[in-house]
Amino acid sequence: MYFSKNKEIDQLVQKLIQFGWSYAKGRHYKLFPPNGCGMVIVPGTPGDRRAFQNFRRDVRHRLHGHAERYRHARQELMP
Q1: How do the pLDDT tens digits run along the chain, 79 residues long?
Q2: CA–CA separation, 75 vs 69, rounded Å?
Q3: 36 φψ region: left (φ > 0), alpha (ψ -120 to 50), beta (else)
Q4: Residues whose CB falls within 8 Å of the CB of residue 7, separated by 6 or more in sequence, listed in order
Q5: Which of 26, 28, 45, 62 has the most CB atoms in a 10 Å sphere around its CB?
């Protein structure tokens, strides 16, 4: 099974799943970290040359507990 046509992204996703990350298939694969903080969208057919660096950055942010959607949701609720 492959998650992305980019071999570097695909290899990283395979390793993350071995380390306990879970995934769900929708329009794109979604990865959920073991700490339960947010999710990462896997680019299936990345067109940007920096796609791997951006994906790796998103993974690092989720591991350190940064979940942008929760932060934005809180800001919308505050007056």
Answers
A1: 889 999 999 999 999 999 999 999 988 899 998 888 788 999 999 988 999 999 999 999 888 876 555 444 443 433 3
A2: 10
A3: left
A4: none
A5: 62
CA–CA separation, 70 vs 53, rounded Å? Answer: 23
Beta carbons of 38 and 30 less than 8 angstroms apart = no
- pTM, whole model, 2 decimals? 0.78
Residue 50 CA to residue 47 CA, distance in Å, equals: 9
Tell me the two tokens of residue 78.
């505050």
Phi, psi of 10 (to 5 degrees): -60, -45
- Sign, CA dihedral 24-19-61-70, equals positive
